[in-house]
């Protein structure tokens, strides 16, 4: 125990003496959390529309005013040429073109089918899907208005419209930030923990001090645990700051227990830090460690369901996630914060993270070499 | 020096890296309190042998015991009883003089009180009391080397291994460094030292000279000079080292 105390004392001193690392550890994650939460949004606020109105009827104008009145759309231009509109699309100046052909209004008045052509910039498939959905909903909306208009005029039986209503449980307004922010918190805690631990032991190899450590009777487990504990403390500290930002800046609901989040973070971080130390013991330069850590980070992260729903991944991708600690933690933290899940709901996932933690630390201690 | 107590016993030590034999059938013994010079050109296999003796590397074969402990089976006990100072400077540059001493004392299991008492004596002796709270990175190289040596014997080991401890240091500081070595030797610590400076070889009780992984000569400096009919150790070394094939 006494030896561990001296080792820890040295590690903490070194971390707080490293003037270039301190801002990276403490300031960058907070900045990232704020910036990413605001910027990486899937909510569409600003779809640029180009409208080609060859009809110039009252119907086409009414529908256009629906678009220009919506906060989600900016009508860039109303003109007559589809070719001109397409040029703008090529220049990436606009996101979608709406074309009203001649006779659109007349067809509507005669209750025949009237159609609008919608051309969407689909370079980014997911935003194209969103443009499409938003535009359709505006048109749908207009549809129901003119239907009731016409019904009130001739007084015949109204057309039966089937309407579905939705209740979105746990995130009723389908807000983006309550969903994303818990995941981003996991991301930041992971990045800092994984990289700091992956660079640490190998740094002592580069400087040469590891040799001095290796001629002492320090146990491998003591050496690595003393490396792990300071980063665990830093990880907790960052998580606490992140949760404060989530609560007080973004007003994220805290339905579940904060202590439970820290319990999960404890198990999770030991796994991640053990994995980082394993990388560090297996590499010879900080550069190698950096690239390997980055490789795993990117795979874990993109597979994790932070940016894309896991359910839409191919079967094998979903199976890979059984081995992805980030996926578990993101899932758990969202459950606790947004649904208020308790310990019993997440028991299985915690057990898996626990197994990962035990495995990664054991392998790291085992693979660490005091003898060449 | 106590010639009856052998603290290092090496018998038929081989170390091979693939086809290359770095240590070719080394056999020697070192007595308690002796200053043992371990000489050889670059690439002769000195560092390889030292690492094996410190438990940092496995031998390919041979019977080796250090401080009474077997290098195969009792490495951790062995490590408790040796000190080591390598070519690469090995104190933590971002820690202060005191913090380095406290750390190395602490990991050998010394208590805070033992460490603090001994640190005061040590800093007085080295005349470093004024730099107690300065970072290692701000000290001149000579001071760092003296301090590194003192830290290597801080926990009172039986043997201290010095791998080119005086590289790049000016002659005055080297002289002071050797004063520290003599003092440690008088206190009963065995010194196992490699060097490139032949004047330093004269300070040793006994000297071995390695050529191409083999020990080609082993005796007191006086006897070696007689044997090779040389005026100083420089000539002894050159007449042996000329035979080398593995010179860098």
UniProtKB/TrEMBL annotation, chain A:
<keyword id="KW-0812">Transmembrane</keyword>
<keyword id="KW-1133">Transmembrane helix</keyword>
<keyword id="KW-0813">Transport</keyword>
<feature type="transmembrane region" description="Helical">
    <location>
        <begin position="350"/>
        <end position="368"/>
    </location>
</feature>
<keyword id="KW-0472">Membrane</keyword>
<feature type="transmembrane region" description="Helical">
    <location>
        <begin position="258"/>
        <end position="279"/>
    </location>
</feature>
<dbReference type="InterPro" id="IPR047817">
    <property type="entry name" value="ABC2_TM_bact-type"/>
</dbReference>
<feature type="transmembrane region" description="Helical">
    <location>
        <begin position="21"/>
        <end position="42"/>
    </location>
</feature>
<feature type="transmembrane region" description="Helical">
    <location>
        <begin position="176"/>
        <end position="196"/>
    </location>
</feature>
<comment type="similarity">
    <text>Belongs to the ABC-2 integral membrane protein family.</text>
</comment>
<protein>
    <submittedName>
        <fullName>ABC transporter permease</fullName>
    </submittedName>
</protein>
<dbReference type="InterPro" id="IPR051449">
    <property type="entry name" value="ABC-2_transporter_component"/>
</dbReference>
<feature type="transmembrane region" description="Helical">
    <location>
        <begin position="291"/>
        <end position="310"/>
    </location>
</feature>
<dbReference type="Pfam" id="PF12698">
    <property type="entry name" value="ABC2_membrane_3"/>
</dbReference>
<dbReference type="InterPro" id="IPR013525">
    <property type="entry name" value="ABC2_TM"/>
</dbReference>
<keyword id="KW-1003">Cell membrane</keyword>
<feature type="domain" description="ABC transmembrane type-2">
    <location>
        <begin position="143"/>
        <end position="371"/>
    </location>
</feature>
<feature type="transmembrane region" description="Helical">
    <location>
        <begin position="228"/>
        <end position="252"/>
    </location>
</feature>
UniProtKB/TrEMBL annotation, chain B:
<dbReference type="Pfam" id="PF00005">
    <property type="entry name" value="ABC_tran"/>
</dbReference>
<feature type="domain" description="ABC transporter">
    <location>
        <begin position="8"/>
        <end position="237"/>
    </location>
</feature>
<protein>
    <submittedName>
        <fullName>ABC transporter ATP-binding protein</fullName>
    </submittedName>
</protein>
<dbReference type="InterPro" id="IPR027417">
    <property type="entry name" value="P-loop_NTPase"/>
</dbReference>
<dbReference type="GO" id="GO:0005524">
    <property type="term" value="F:ATP binding"/>
</dbReference>
<keyword id="KW-0067">ATP-binding</keyword>
<keyword id="KW-0547">Nucleotide-binding</keyword>
<dbReference type="InterPro" id="IPR003593">
    <property type="entry name" value="AAA+_ATPase"/>
</dbReference>
<dbReference type="InterPro" id="IPR003439">
    <property type="entry name" value="ABC_transporter-like_ATP-bd"/>
</dbReference>
